UniProtKB/TrEMBL annotation:
InterPro entries: Rv2632c-like, Rv2632c-like_sf
Organism: Paractinoplanes atraurantiacus
Source species, domain of life: Bacteria
Transmembrane segments: none
Name recorded for this polypeptide: DUF1876 domain-containing protein
Length: 91
């Protein structure tokens, strides 16, 4: 039997024009657990052109990468809970 589940990722962006910085948070929501949160940041050098979309994209990519690593940690902890042995997630 096939089951379909939907997980959602909420991404919030905060742009600080004075510090030339964009921060992103990516929060994974599922029915199975408490939300998992990743964070990312992008900084614009003074010589860079002001293109907010690039900062948004970079900060979001970093937040999603952080979220992915945290989800792997959560998964390893879940496996260890059932196997009572250290989990090594590779590949």
């Amino acid at each position: 039997m096939m089951h379909t589940r939907t997980w959602t990722v909420e991404i919030n962006l905060v742009e600080d024009e004075e510090q030339r910085r964009t921060r992103a948070t990516a929060v994974l929501h599922s029915d199975a657990r408490t939300p998992v949160r990743g964070e990312g940041e992008a900084r614009r050098r003074p010589a860079d052109a002001e293109v907010p979309e690039i900062g948004d994209e970079l900060a979001t990519a970093r937040a999603l990468a952080d979220l992915a690593y945290k989800l792997l940690d959560v998964t390893a902890a879940d496996i260890e809970q059932f196997t009572h042995r250290p989990a090594h997630l590779t590949g």
